[in-house]
Write a structure and sequence with these properties.
Elements lengths: L5 E5 H11 L13 H17 L3 E5 L7 H6 L8 E3 L2 E2 L3 H4 L2 H11 L3 E2 L6 H11 L4 E5 L14 E5 L8 E3 L1 H8 L6 H8 L14 H11 L2 H6 L6 H9 L1 H11 L22 H10 L3 H11 L3
Parallel strand pairs: 1-2, 1-6, 2-5, 6-7
Antiparallel strand pairs: 3-4, 7-8
Helix pairs in contact: 1-2, 2-14, 5-13, 8-9, 8-12
GO biological process, one term: DNA replication, Okazaki fragment processing
Protein name: 5'-3' exonuclease
Keywords: DNA-binding, Exonuclease, Hydrolase, Nuclease
Length: 300
């Protein structure tokens, strides 16, 4: 792991995990839950210590359900809408998000978002523009599409827990699903994902989807050789033709998100605003989490 390396954090994926994984008894001096803030700091400290990046970004959902994705596929995340276009999020977590931003800003850890784009798009844009190997820290399988060996990009997948995270590369994907990163978007489109409102193609599960991609390369190849498919699969694809194209665009992470042009992702060695961080650490009762992130940043 010597040499320059970029570490991209899927911020919401991590602070949701921290909120639901740590007890609400972790509170501020005034008794308000602060488990998401403390947990996120510990996650950042663990990965910064373990992977020693030279560049980092805390990637942000400036839009959790971008209008252009909804126009392509109205069901996209529709079941997670509380009202209007507001995501259904526990109030105790919502209250902590501004504190998370304040703490990251005081530390000098770059927060990067893009108008009408999700963190996935920010991550994809930064990863494809990086001049170093990239590791993406997330619990979102859709980002497996970024895995590739030529511009080395891995996903540090935390679904089984941060301590048990998996290093997802093409070999891992091949062993798990029978595909590589370049086939993951079409694999996800065929399989579907109820958590994102993607219905998939009825009758096509993971095994069949992987076999089709291995044989025909992509959705276009399947459609072009529909006469070589089994009657059941051919019927399934034909009945889903209006879904396939839009879903493919929805699942594909944008690599041209309008991120700021003058980004400096250099990992800070100390807080950007030590006084502000010290005040937040005291007010929010961050305790050992504050100490651990400072120690991680100060590593040579």
């Amino acid at each position: 792991m010597n040499g320059p390396r970029t570490l991209l954090f899927d911020s919401a994926s991590l602070y949701f995990r921290a909120f639901f994984g740590l007890p609400a008894s972790l509170t501020t001096q005034s008794g308000e839950p602060v488990n998401a803030v403390r947990g996120l700091l510990d996650f950042l400290a663990r990965f910064i210590t373990g992977y020693r990046p030279t560049q980092v970004a805390c990637c942000w959902d400036d839009a959790w359900r971008p209008t252009w994705r909804v126009e392509l596929l109205p069901s996209y995340k529709a079941h997670r809408v509380a009202f209007g276009d507001v995501e259904e999020v526990p109030a105790e977590l919502n209250a902590q998000v501004p504190w998370i931003r304040e703490v990251l800003d005081a530390l000098g850890l770059p927060i990067v978002g893009a108008a009408d784009h999700e963190a996935d798009d920010v991550i994809a844009t930064l990863a494809r523009g990086a001049s170093t190997p990239v590791d993406v820290v997330t619990g979102d399988r859709d980002l497996f599409q970024l895995v590739e060996p030529t511009r080395p990009t891995r996903v540090l997948y935390v679904a089984r827990g941060v301590a048990k995270h998996e290093r997802v590369d093409d070999a891992w994907l091949r062993a798990k699903y029978g595909i590589d990163g370049s086939g993951y978007v079409d694999f996800a489109v065929l399989r579907g994902d109820p958590s994102d409102g993607l219905p998939g193609v009825k009758g096509i599960g993971e095994k069949t989807a992987a076999g089709l991609i291995d044989r025909f390369g992509d959705l276009a190849g399947m459609v072009a050789h529909v006469d070589q498919l089994s009657p059941a699969v051919a019927r399934a694809l034909s009945s889903s033709v209006d879904y396939l194209g839009p879903a493919q665009q929805v699942v594909t992470a944008a690599t041209d998100a309008p991120v700021p042009a003058d980004l400096d992702l250099t990992l800070p060695k100390a807080p950007r605003d030590p006084d502000a961080f010290a005040r937040l650490a005291e007010d929010l009762n961050l305790g050992g989490a504050a100490e651990r992130i400072l120690k991680a940043l100060a590593l040579p």
